[in-house]
Amino acid sequence: MLVAQAFLTAVAVFPIFYFVKKRLGGFAGVCFAAAYSLFWGIQLMVAYDFHELAFGVPLIAFLIYFMDEEKWTAYFVTIALLFCVKEDLCFFVAFAGIYLIVFKRKFKYGFISFFAGIVVFLLLTKYVMPYFAGGGAFHQFYYYEKFGDTPWHAFLGAVKNPALVYHEMFDHPYKQYMLKFIFNPFLWTSLLSPLTTLSVPLLAERLLSDNWKFYVVDAYYYSATIAPVLAMTAADGIFVILKFIKYRLVRQAVFAAAGLAVVWLALPLLNYKLEKLWEPQFCRLSETDKSGNKALALIPPDASVAAQDSVEPHLCNREALVRMLEPGIPDLDFIICASPEHSPWPAPRRDWIYGYIDEKMKNGYIKIFDENGWKVLEKKSLYALRGK
Q1: Which of 278, 312, 338 is the last residue of a domain?
Q2: Domain that holds residue 254
Q3: Strand, helix or coil at 367?
Q4: Which residues does residue 378 pair with via DSSP β-bridges, in sequence order?
Q5: What is the pLDDT of residues 277-317, one digit of tens each?
Q6: pTM score, two decimals?
Q7: DSSP code of 365?
Q8: Which of 278, 308, 332 is the last residue in one of the domains?
Q9: Pick from 41, 31, 15: which is nearest to 263 by CA?
Q10: Are both 301 and 269 inside the same structural domain?
Q11: Cis omega (within 30 of 0) on the bond before 194?
Q12: Residue 189 shares a structural domain with residue 318
């Protein structure tokens, strides 16, 4: 899955390159494709873990390219694929429709895109997601209570009270810092392009959220989907500037300088993620990693187990896997605690995990492994049954 994520992220350079080449030439196309690859939001997503938004990144780039080339069959196929990635990307499709209507005068394709985005969003959140999750799936991750208790009420609340929208977008220093970090690498030239319309839903989803994790700079994968939009709109913004410059040498100097500046600005931003590739230990198992493998090997594939979020992917090929600290869970066969290098989530702090482990050891569990921070508990009755 991690290899697939890296591949999907890399595929986006092709539509970005050809989009930029059409406007500024091949050299600039290479520069902007490189800047996209080095953008801190992309680096964070690849360095964090697998997420379904990895499928959305190249699809967004291809959607903009097909829309620009007016390849409508490919455009609508891309829209259909975007609908399969994540429900909030429906709003991105809706805003693509707004762009086509307002700036391209492609009314038929624009209205189809807009209404398809809205209708599919309602279908996904009201019927599809609750059906597969046993009801209430969407509202568990709804973070816009200030505007309304449902997405539709939130939309109406935002329309009725634009002052609240403006206040919520800039009411926290983290939000202002995030906006600078997003637009600085591309010299804010994205704002000169009408295509910036497509960034509105991607930014609004984060800036208007009640959840602070949405608007901090190092928020996992949340800044990845806007990366192809930024690269392509920045090139289009520079192209808008060049329309007003008549002299050829000046034009070439402007876009060459812009391309180099984009790459130069993108390189240092959170580049410590790339620097790890040059460290030999990054490609080797640490002693803690080896201890983790030993701990995981102690848990039989047919056993039930409770684990913290970061360990779950290593245990997911089983019938009974429960996230640690979930309320109301029954006693399971095993409990595994990861080393301090791993996130304690769903516990807010690591001492909560240790408190949970201590409590379980007083109530029917025995510790069978303790090395480099990794701990494995087994139910005493099962331990006795195995004759240990």
Answers
A1: 278
A2: 2-278
A3: strand
A4: 334, 366
A5: 777 877 888 899 999 999 999 999 889 999 988 888 888 88
A6: 0.83
A7: E
A8: 278
A9: 31
A10: no
A11: no
A12: no
